[in-house]
Amino acid sequence: MKKSIILFACFVFAALLFTSTTYIEINKIEKTDSNDSDTQIGGYKIGDVATDFELKNIDGKMVSMADYPDANGFIIIFTCNSCPYAVMYEDRIIELHNNYAPKGYPVIAINPNDADIKPSDSFENMQKRAMDKGFEFPYIFDEKQEIFPVYGAKKTPHVFLLSKEKVVEYIGAIDDNAQNAASVSQKYVENAIAALERGEKPNPSTTKAIGCSIKIKK
To answer: Structure pTM?
Structure first.
């Protein structure tokens, strides 16, 4: 009995230590990598018309928004393999695509990171991650880092919701709780799409993107 109590106490201590360490690491990232303001600095602003891109997908084919002539809009998400926030949002990104691609709002995920700085974000590792997670949306590589500065993406993940005419309608976070999907109270992207479907403008149209800074080629 005494041995069982000791083992249980050790288990509880280990669980608390793991939880505390995870919180410290996430909190450290949030303090050092979160945006300083809710306002997008540089790149596209709400109401701008986004130009198209053509980047290599994990299947080796080039992908652009022109490949979706029947789209009602586009959920452009700058994300990656390596950022803990991006990882926390992977299942929600999959859910967004599954729920909204059939309604004409496909997800196009773009990895903006320099693989020399973050080898885990290499094209080969993108392919592996997409296979492991079962991504059914394009996961394309901004290898020359030419697209994310045009958009003004600062974090991973960072969302740009475009209308059918490629007008920027929403910029920011997917929702208001990166760490716990069950505790989300504001689903920003879903609410923005619902507003567009009603013929209205998203409110809010911008939110703070919480995540890791994009790793820029030196």
So the answer is: 0.83
